[in-house]
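Hi F.,

I've been meaning to write this up properly since the lab meeting, where we talked about keeping a consistent format for the predictions we share between groups. The idea is simple: the sequence comes first, exactly as it goes in, then the structure tokens exactly as they come out, then a line or two of notes. No screenshots and no reformatting. I'm using this chain as the first example so we have something concrete to point to.
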Amino acid sequence: MRDTKESRLLLVLLIAVAFALITVDIRGGEDSPVDGARQAAANVFGPIENGVSSAVDPVGNAVSAIRDSGDRHDRLAALETQNAALKAKLGSDERGRSRLKQFDKMLGLAGAGQYGIKGAQVIAIGAAQGFSWTITIDAGAGDGVKRDMTVLNGDGLVGRVTTVGPNSATVLLANDPDFTVGTRMEAGDELGFAAGQGSRPFRVELLNGKADVKKGDRLVTFGSQADKPFVPGVPVGTVSRVDPNGGDLTRILEVTPFVSFTKLDVVGVVVQAPQKDPRDTVLPEKDKPEPTPTVTVTVTPGADPEGQAQNNEGGATEEDDAALGNDTAGENGATGQNDRTDQQNEQTEP
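Output, unedited:
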């Protein structure tokens, strides 16, 4: 169609008619005079749209999957490059070597859970933000950090991101009284909620009041919808006490956290959630109990302890008598020698 005066006039007329129909439709509400035409169009074109969609969607999904896979790979590669640079920076001195050890441990945990993490260092603690248990890290929006992302270290769950700046972020620690996270018991899969209690152990409320739980059992995060604020499988802690007076509906536990919240330095923000729930595979291996040493006493068959003691006493008496006899003989010999000396002296006198 050529660009003529008539075509332009027709275009303006169509636009005006469209605006008029939209206005009439909005003012008419449910009783709109164009509702019938809209329903008729939907009945006619709806099946066609569904057919085209069913034919095109598989191709579109395949293209999207390939694109997302490439984006995920590129993002993980970028994270590995950034973490390698941070690792080289940390190993420059003695303190850096300690941080490097923490960083390696954290990378091992992240690898086991397939978490894509952004490494960071703690640059401030709660006093800068108020009375809550919080820390500030040196990674922010420019590093891909967003609000409600999981934060961990080489031991387990540290907390979640609450506020984000261009180059820093604030993390609410898991032991804060306002912190709550869904948990899953190792192996048994019992679900519950862990709440922070400051310097005291976590308070965990299991949803099953009859759950079979014992001291030493371990917990991991259950995970949140869309993996925010918590990804699944992050180690939480070990059961240190089971409340014997639990109710019929829930059961109360005390759980000692894996993380020491007063010794935080190197942490990681989970910027890429795992494609599959790692469940409890991220937990470290349990310590094997040390064998208890045993002492074996062997008794000789037929031996009489009392008779042996009497024989020992008899042997001691005979030795004492022999010694006494020797002493007596020595005294008698000395007496006879003195008598002979006296007789010689008497014969010599004039």
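Notes:
The first strand starts at residue 116 and ends at 125.
Confidence is low (pLDDT under 50) at residues 309-320, 322-338, 340-350.

If this format works for you, I'll send the rest the same way.

G.
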